[in-house]
Each structure stands twice: as C-alpha cells, then as structure tokens.
C-alpha cells in the first residue's frame, strides 16, 4: 500500500495526534531522500520497534554550505515513495523548504563539543542545520524511537546529544552501515561517482579493514593505525579530507586504543569532486 504523503506541518501534526489517540507507537526515519538499502533497513527496524513507521524526505538547505551540492543533490520522490512502501512506512513527510522555514524563522539548535572537529570543522554550520531540522522533526512527530545510520557517525552523536540535553524523550537508535558487496558504504552521493571513481572509493573501506587487521595483530598506537588508512587513500588517488582515530562517544582524538574502550576510525576523502565519509569501530 502506498504511504500517506504529508506535505505540511499542520496535516502532519493532525496525523500524529490521530496516531496518539489510537494508542499506536511511532518510529521515525528522517532522510534527505534518494533512498537506498541503508535507509530501508532503518524503516524495517523501525517496524520491529514500534507499531507504525513514518519517514521524512527533506533536502534540508540549512545543512549545506554555500559551495556545497544542494542544487544537484539527487532526488527521486516517486521512486522513494515506492521504496518506503516496500519497507512498510505508513506515512512520508515531504515538505517544501518554506514549510520548514517560514518567513520570520529565527531559531536554531547548536550542539557543542561533539559537533566540533571532523565534518564540523570542514563544513561550518552543517551540524547546526542538522540539529535544528532534526529537533523540529522530533518535536513534530513525537516518536517513541528515531533511527539513523552509523555511516554519518558524527551526525548520530550530535543527535544523541541534542535528544539527551533537551530531554525530548525519544530513543535514538544507530544502525550499522549497510555496504555494497565490495565494501563501499551505501550513500546517496555514490550516484555522483563515475565507474573509475567508484572503484577508487573502495580505498576507504579497504584502509579501515587494514587498520582493524593491524589492531588485531597487536598495534594500539593511533598514528600507526591512521597511517594504514592514509596510505590506502593515497595509493588510490583519493584526496584525504581527514583520517582520525577517536573516542566512540566523545569523538575526541585518541593517541592509542585502550582495550575495552570503544574507538572509531573516521574517514573523509574526495573521489573526484565527490566527498565520501565512512567509519568503523576499532577494538572495543
């Protein structure tokens, strides 16, 4: 069955109220559309955790910088709605930017330490845009649970922090990155890659696998683990944006992995003009 398409805040609030009166619980999956199996895995998990699943499809302009890819970000609403139906979403919120940010809009949400560094340093204002739109969506839908992919790992930690700090009462669930059979992390931006760039992009996952193998062999120093990833990126002709080994919760850089304390290798690099991100747990 095709999902109910909600286009305004008012009709969405009415739908959420009817759901509340019926006593059914809600899982929310916020997206920017151009859906892939990673998004659909979130919706299927949402069905397991709640009575009803809703998704949002909104290419949020406030999280794009002036030289980023807002105008060319891939869109396929008709295909996305069909995919939402296949994953069991009952409703999809697809607002226009003016609906989310009407004239006079002047409020923003800023998350502190966890949004610093990594993508936060390279994309000024990005996480303020993410935090603001996600806060709006959580307040509008009032879900029991909201699901996000771990591929955008810093984003996930920002959202966990804002939910905790603002006492929104929503369980934030991070789901494992879904990968292509050859290891490439699924991403809407993969559509930008030429066949040759896509092949070179495998260096991200290959480098992190090499770092994990080095850790399993007994290496604990961050510099050595990071160097494995950097060498793979360089060999593939990718332009490194950053490679860092960080605490999995605070995202603070580590000098070494402490057994029993979760760490993450977090990577961003350019294949041609396309910026790709990935991450993987190390140790823990």
From TrEMBL:
Q: Which residues carry out catalysis?
A: 39 (proton donor)
**Which of this chain's residues are annotated to bind ATP?**
32-39, 149-152, 178, 186-189
What is its subcellular localisation? Answer: Cytoplasm
Q: Name one GO molecular function term.
A: pantoate-beta-alanine ligase activity
Supply the Pfam families for this chain.
Answer: Pantoate_ligase
The UniProt entry's coiled-coil ranges are none
Q: What is the designated name of this protein? A: Pantothenate synthetase
* Miscellaneous information on this protein: The reaction proceeds by a bi uni uni bi ping pong mechanism.
Ordered alphabetically, the record's keywords are: ATP-binding, Cytoplasm, Ligase, Nucleotide-binding, Pantothenate biosynthesis
Q: Which gene encodes it?
A: panC
| Residue positions binding beta-alanine | 63
């Amino acid at each position: 069955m095709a999902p109910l398409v909600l286009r305004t805040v008012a009709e969405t609030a009415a739908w959420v109220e009817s759901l509340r009166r019926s006593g059914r619980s809600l899982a929310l999956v916020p997206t920017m559309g151009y859906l892939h199996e990673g998004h659909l895995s979130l919706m299927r998990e949402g069905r397991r955790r709640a009575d009803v699943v809703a998704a949002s499809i909104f290419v949020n302009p406030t999280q794009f910088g002036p030289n980023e890819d807002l105008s060319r970000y891939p869109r396929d609403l008709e295909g996305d709605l069909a995919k939402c139906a296949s994953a069991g979403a009952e409703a999809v919120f697809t607002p226009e930017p003016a609906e989310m940010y009407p004239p006079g809009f002047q409020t923003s949400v800023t998350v502190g330490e966890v949004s610093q560094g990594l993508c936060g340093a390279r994309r000024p204002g990005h996480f303020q845009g993410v935090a603001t739109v996600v806060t709006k969506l959580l307040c509008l839908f009032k879900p029991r649970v909201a699901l996000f992919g771990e591929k955008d790992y810093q984003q996930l930690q920002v959202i966990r922090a804002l939910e905790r700090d603002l006492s929104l009462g929503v369980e934030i669930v991070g789901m494992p990155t879904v990968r292509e059979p050859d290891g490439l992390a699924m991403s809407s931006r993969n559509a930008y890659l030429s066949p040759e760039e896509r092949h070179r992009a495998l260096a991200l996952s290959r480098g992190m696998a090499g770092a994990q193998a080095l850790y399993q062999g007994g290496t604990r120093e961050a510099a050595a683990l990071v160097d494995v990833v950097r060498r793979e990126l360089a060999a593939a002709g990718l332009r490194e944006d950053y490679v860092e080994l960080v605490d999995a919760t605070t995202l603070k850089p580590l000098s070494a992995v402490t057994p029993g304390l979760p760490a993450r290798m977090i990577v961003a690099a350019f294949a041609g003009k396309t910026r790709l991100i990935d991450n993987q747990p190390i140790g823990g």
